[in-house]
Amino acid sequence: MAITNERITRYVFLRVLYEDGYYPDHLVDKGRGVLMRLCERIEAEQPADLAALYALTEVATEEFNALEAEFEEAGSEIETVAREEIAENFWFVASAYGFEEADVEELVAAREW
Predict the structure, then answer these.
(1) Is residue 88 part of a domain?
(2) What range defines the domain where residue 101 resides?
């Protein structure tokens, strides 16, 4: 499914991680994929309220949880800088789809990082 939200299509997801050599690009690409799939699901399912949005972000957060081991195997980790960047990107997605009132901590409440 092609994403139609122009704010999303113009946005560079995880920019800070791509700019820092500590984070392997192939794993940052996987994280970007998680966020893009989240956008596709939001466009397909059109959540009616925050509870429905949080259900979608929970799945995406769990995908990031699964990536953490891969980061560690590559000599990296999802630490403070990465946590902040990922959470900020989740909030950007929520706001781009009209959920400006979303709580960033709720968006990534299932995180293990």
Answers:
(1) yes
(2) 12-107
